[in-house]
Specification:
Length: 727
């Protein structure tokens, strides 16, 4: 049969008219939502509600009415593509509207009319680009129409083969594209809401230690650290490649979180379906948004490695010949240990324990032992190939005693006593920390139900895979939860929360199709999955709208001329970065010291007292761009409050001829129910500072001290954003 393919039409007029009509309807819905919410809440919240309402209306109407894609089988993929096109259209609207309204029409019209005209032109271009984006990409209605030649049978459609006949490579390509879109959307959202405020302690540790690594210093040998070297090395590399860009470092952090979201989608899309996968991603995104005040925390790369390793072990446990996969999983555990030593260990234990359980359930006793031995050897080899070379390189230049002190001796003796927090009550706001162990327990119960009675013949492949995922990710969740049980808080159990989302999505998928009791359990799991992060993130997102100057989106708007910078913003930045915001007193002190010190000079960031310590503003080393003058620059209760450590600090200050000290009296002790709220009675460091240094400038409760034998360096002029000199 001869088939004549009609010429393709770039635009379908009827379809385009329907698309414009749905756009107008969605706009009306947007405005209605803004009007309703503005009567009961803030204007910023109303705009957010309007955007969400308009987006949902636009997607549903364009799908069902404009492009007539009535099937919901692939709605999740269409929603992702729609979001990408929608975002691209918004960018086009802004760029075209701004350019035309500011630079083209002002030559022809008054400014108010030119700006209005620019908005209309931008809207028109956005409408056209969005239509073609949806026609060619989202719904793919651009296809040739086929007709039979005269004398032949009925026309034959030139549409692609049914989805079930698609090749495996096509499915993998589409899955990879969808995961990449998820990661991109997560990156954009988290990036725009990225807080500009610098974490004076937690983030400061990473930034200052990266400076020390970049200067050739070795972790543990040259400076105290409770983390491994990987995060410091990566951040140092980013700073070196970007000329010290704070924004680049933060975007690296956002990228890690976006990769976690993409991995969650990639894992869950086939196991739990698109909607539940997106729900799990939404929960992860909300946790990341709520805890955005803890950037650069080394657990974020560990999340990536943990998800990859555990997912690889699913295949390694199901396939008798999957030893290469197990070795790759072991390599991930070895890499995780270079970020956080204990995380790598817990990941190794969880993966090998889970593999042992699964192999024991699936194989005869003798065969199980041989298979498991092979898995252990392969996994251990992969771990060793990554971790042991780094350990050997360290031992060539540093004594093992330094590592032992920082990671083993101090942690076992003092961390629980000085940093420990009690478990919250389940109904308290912090009760969300119980989500991970609860879901992990339910996951193991469901895995046991699949396997009951013990050692029966293997079920179908889908059931075997579901059981493997439940066992491995539940054990990973429980082992990671152990890392956070000393200092119980949302950020410290977040490492366990992420794999728990995988378990929760699979449980919901399995139970939603059951009887009433399993369905009720599925609903409870879904509420526990999305409820705590939504509540926790609500206040953080509300802060972003009530204090928009603190997020990156506001800076982008300022640079684009869409809003003016607040007057006090200039005194929250330093000469190093206009993106990073510090408390004004800290920024002024940093600017004062930076203008009066040599680039190769070391400084000391201290407190107003050192017999009782909670944290110190380590980030000021990064703000001033000066290296610390002591091995013990990061303060922890139980360490810098000891006489031997304070004596070592005094010796370092003398040996390094440290002239400048920033003493911070604003780092209030929160009086937590642990040893950090008790005085050690050791005042050796305070006595030395009082005897050897004098205050020369101050801003609020942050003072700048100078060695008594030194004179204050003269500068051309006193900046208004510097600490005030003390006469």
């Amino acid at each position: 049969m001869i088939v004549d393919v009609a010429p393709r039409q770039a635009i379908d007029i009827r379809e385009f008219v329907r698309f414009v009509g749905t756009g107008v309807t969605a706009t009306i819905g947007n405005l209605a939502a803004v009007w309703i919410v503005a009567r009961h809440g803030s204007f910023g919240l109303a705009l957010l509600a309007g955007s969400i309402a308009g987006f949902i209306l636009s997607f549903v109407l364009s799908k069902l009415v404009a492009f007539r894609a009535r099937s919901w089988d692939r709605a999740w993929a269409e929603a992702l593509r729609f979001t990408l096109v929608h975002g691209a259209g918004a960018v086009v609207y802004w760029v075209v509207g701004f350019a035309v309204g500011r630079y083209v029409l002002p030559h022809l019209l008054d400014r108010p009319l030119s700006e209005l005209g620019g908005a209309f032109v931008g809207a028109g271009v956005m409408t056209a680009t969005s239509y073609f984006g949806h026609r060619f990409f989202t719904y793919r209605t651009y296809a040739p129409r086929s007709r039979a030649q005269p004398g032949t049978t009925a026309p034959v459609s030139a549409s692609p083969a049914p989805s079930g006949e698609r090749s495996a490579s096509a499915r993998h390509s589409e899955d990879a594209t969808s995961a990449a879109l998820v990661g991109l959307l997560a990156f954009v959202g988290l990036g725009l809401l990225m807080p500009r405020g610098v974490g004076l302690f937690d983030e400061g540790i990473i930034l200052s230690d990266a400076m020390r690594v970049a200067a050739g210093e070795v972790v543990h040998r040259d400076f105290y650290s409770s983390y491994g070297p990987a995060q410091y090395t990566i951040v140092a590399a980013v700073l070196g490649l970007t000329d010290g860009s704070f924004l680049a470092v933060r975007l690296y952090d956002v990228a890690c979180k976006a990769v976690v979201c993409a991995l969650l989608f990639s894992i869950l899309r086939g196991l739990a379906g698109g909607p539940l996968a997106l729900l799990a991603i939404a929960a992860a995104w909300l946790w990341f948004a709520a805890l955005a005040v803890f950037p650069l925390y080394p657990i974020y790369p560990c999340m990536i490695l943990g998800l990859v390793a555990t997912w690889l072990m699913v295949g390694g446990s199901l396939r008798p010949g999957g030893l290469r996969v197990c070795a790759a999983a072991g390599a991930c555990a070895g890499a995780a240990a270079l970020f956080r030593y204990e995380v790598g260990f817990f990941l190794l234990v969880a993966n090998l324990l889970g593999a042992g359980v699964l192999i024991g359930l699936d194989a005869a006793r003798g065969g199980a032992a041989r298979r498991y031995a092979g898995v252990v050897v392969a996994y251990g080899l992969g771990t060793s190939l990554v971790f042991l070379p780094a350990a050997a390189a360290y031992l060539l230049v540093a004594p093992v005693g330094s590592f032992w002190h920082d990671i083993v001796e101090f942690s076992t003796k003092y961390y629980a006593e000085m940093r420990g927090l009690p478990f919250p009550r389940p109904w308290e706001p912090k009760g969300g920390v119980y989500f991970a162990p609860l879901i992990a327990g339910l996951g193991l119960v469901e895995a046991g139900r699949i396997s009951w009675p013990a050692r029966r013949p293997r079920r179908d492949e889908a059931e075997a895979r579901a059981r493997a995922v439940l066992v491995l990710f539940s054990l990973c969740t429980l082992l990671f939860f152990l890392k956070g049980i000393v200092r119980v808080s949302a950020i410290h159990v977040l490492l366990a929360t992420i794999p728990a989302l995988v378990v929760a999505a699979i449980l919901a998928r399995r139970w939603l199709g059951g009887s009433r009791l399993p369905q009720a359990g599925a609903i409870l799991v879904l509420l526990l999955t999305i409820g705590p992060p939504a509540v926790f993130a609500a206040s953080k997102l509300r802060d972003a709208f009530t204090s928009p100057d603190n997020v990156l989106a506001s800076l982008i708007a300022e640079r684009a001329g869409l809003r003016s910078a607040p007057g006090e913003a200039a005194c929250r930045t330093t000469s190093r970065s206009t993106v990073a915001l510090y408390p004004p007193d800290h920024a002024r002190a940093a600017n004062y010291v930076a203008r009066r010190t040599r680039p190769d000079e070391r400084i000391f960031v201290a407190l107003d007292r050192h017999d009782m310590i909670f944290t110190n503003p380590v980030a000021l080393y990064f703000a001033v761009e000066r290296l610390p003058g002591t091995h013990w620059h990061q303060f922890d209760p139980g360490l810098q409050t000891r006489a031997d450590t304070q004596a070592a600090i005094v010796a370092d200050l003398q040996d390094n001829r440290v002239r400048w000290v920033i003493r911070d009296g604003s780092m209030e002790n929160p009086n937590e129910p642990n040893g950090s709220s008790r005085s050690s009675g050791v005042t050796l460091l305070d006595e030395f500072l009082d005897a050897s240094y004098r205050p020369v400038a101050s801003s609020g409760r942050v003072a700048v001290w100078l060695l008594k034998s030194e004179a204050v360096s003269s500068v051309d002029h006193q900046s208004p954003c510097e600490a005030t000199a003390i006469d």
